[in-house]
């Protein structure tokens, strides 16, 4: 199992749950795919794109179940990032966790990331 991660505002995620699928945050919609990160990329993604933001969730997805719509493409620093070229169905999500801020303003991943 290859786990990938999606950080999203809680309200946006709740809308996706109600609709049965996550079609993407504004940046995803603009780029034409849903951005994900690997376990090793997620902390940097949070710091770079979600600094100081609270009321976020971290969704955990098994990349192996997403099929050919998931592409691994070079991005930040040449690393390969997972990009999904379709909506993410809620039944494809393994788990969802709150992503609070610590007292120093960093995101607290607790035991979620390996």
Plain-language structure description:
There is one protein chain. The chain has helices at 10-19, 26-31, 39-49, and strands spanning 3-9, 21-22, 34-35, 56-62, 70-74, 80-84, 88-89, 93-99. A hairpin with a 5-residue loop joins strand 5 (70-74) and strand 6 (80-84). The strands form three sheets. A three-stranded antiparallel beta sheet has the order 1-4-8. It has a three-stranded antiparallel beta sheet with strand order 3-6-5. It has a single domain (3-99), classed as Alpha-Beta Barrel (ADP-ribosylation fold). The protein is of the alpha+beta class and 114 residues long. The protein contains three helices and eight strands; from the N terminus they run βαβαβαβββββ. The longest helix has 11 residues, at 39-49.
- What is the mean pLDDT? 95
Q: In what range is the share of β-strand residues?
A: 25-35%
Largest sheet: 3 strands, antiparallel
Number of domain modules: 1
**Rg result:** 13 Å
Order of helices and strands: EHEHEHEEEEE
Q: Predict the CATH topology.
A: ADP-ribosylation fold
Percent of residues in helical segments?
A: 10-25%
The level 1 CATH classification is Alpha Beta
Q: How far apart are the termini?
A: 13 Å
Pairing-aware structural class of the strands and helices?
Answer: alpha+beta
CATH A-level architecture: Alpha-Beta Barrel
Q: What is the CATH homologous superfamily assignment?
A: Protein of unknown function DUF952
| Spans of at least 5 consecutive residues with low confidence | none
Instruction: Tell how many strands the DSSP assignment holds.
Output: 8
